[in-house]
């Protein structure tokens, strides 16, 4: 029981911005709004919001590995694609009856994590770090993209699932929850919305607890000074590998939900542009904080979409400008900078009142 | 009884012999100082002991166990601990969190918090605990790192220039701190240029020169040695 309670105490700590009744009050309000929102909105808009939520998981994976761990992975999209294709291959072969899509969800994420164990083992136990880690991970995701893009021929099939080359796979069944009477099919609107929202809250709170635990302490210690961390007796390679695998599973979850949402997945989801965008969301929001990453990602995604629809082909240029501005004005992230500023303001106000 | 034995340790980078057949034995419970001119191979010797470098030949025996091929973190588990020459604190984290990261290995929960408070008081950093470690003065960083190193309760503490950048008073306080740790049973090996500090704490002194053990003895014997004066002390105290 006390162990359980101490878990909840770890929702707050030095590694995460936001604490006290004010923060959790605001969190409850946001949560309430998020819960009511689909009831007052139309199906298309709700589906579009799910699309935004889906990307938050890959952003959080980068926040964990890069922002907290200090290892810049440029290839989170590799795990995104592996889990996405994995879900497609599994469900096209075995269908959606008996809750199999939920099994496929777990298995596809596990495949992405297994791949991360293999790749991460060679990188971290080979002591690859810094810019070289970025190069290796980017090369891996681009290689996967190239490989999948040349699978157009009919010989490229796994069971009854055609890989379909550059056009990608499509028509995999949506997530289906077995239910007495009729199974619940989570189409890309209200049903999937609540499912993804639940996952998002679970992952967000889980990561808060993880980062404020003794494990999280070691992760940021390695970011700050890996040599000192090792000389305190921590096997740095092991901690880096575990972080990398958790991050890969989150990126995989993102790819899987993306596949479920649109019922398609293509090689370009592992390409250069796809690999670069999460870096921008996370950098602009504030890579070293979970809350800033979530808010930043949602804001940048919404702005990007608005620009693509109403504006022009300049949306990608805008993203570049945004990144440069962030680096110049608030290198730790715009959202994080703003939140820290608000925090100091609130502290000064309470001081003056007190 | 010997705690650490270096047997014929060789390390060369290309043609440069940084340590050349170094034999050094540390007795359990002593404070041993390592002195020598710049480039004598002192810090390299520490790196070899810690496993950051691997010797070309020779053996390192710690508490009766050959640790020559062990990884660094495993040597720390055996009872080694170090304070680096350039203070290796976690700059972006608070002073308190720095100590927590070191102490959480041995303590949990309320006991951990109490240990952090105790160590903060011991180091005189209580009022700085919320401060970001990168903002501390150089001397405070040194103390913070010494604090992290001793929280592991090591059998052998390696100190690389623990008083660099400290005032004479701070240097003396650091010396007293080292003596207190030694009285509690910690063996200490320190690299130090400050002869006042060496005189204050050292029970034995080894002079390293051009990667070789040049002289060994009590501080008085070393100071009286004209050969040592010629290569090192003469310059420092001219």
Automatic annotation (TrEMBL), chain A:
Keywords: Cell membrane, Membrane, Transmembrane, Transmembrane helix. It is a multi-pass membrane protein. It comes from the Bacteria. One of its GO terms (cellular component) is plasma membrane. It is found in: Cell membrane. Signal peptide: none annotated. The chain crosses the membrane at residues 21-40, 52-70, 77-96, 102-124, 131-149, 184-207, 241-258, 264-283, 290-310, 316-342. CDD domains: TM_PBP1_LivM_like. GO terms for molecular function: branched-chain amino acid transmembrane transporter activity. InterPro entries: ABC_transp_permease, LivM-like. This is Branched-chain amino acid transport system permease protein. The lineage of its organism: Bacteria, Pseudomonadati, Pseudomonadota, Alphaproteobacteria, Hyphomicrobiales.
TrEMBL record, chain B:
This is Branched-chain amino acid transport system ATP-binding protein. Involved in beta-(1-->2)glucan export. Transmembrane domains (TMD) form a pore in the inner membrane and the ATP-binding domain (NBD) is responsible for energy generation. GO terms for cellular component: plasma membrane. The keyword Lipoprotein does not apply. It comes from Bradyrhizobium shewense. Pfam families: ABC_tran (PF00005). One of its GO terms (molecular function) is ATP hydrolysis activity. Gene3D superfamilies: P-loop containing nucleotide triphosphate hydrolases (3.40.50.300).
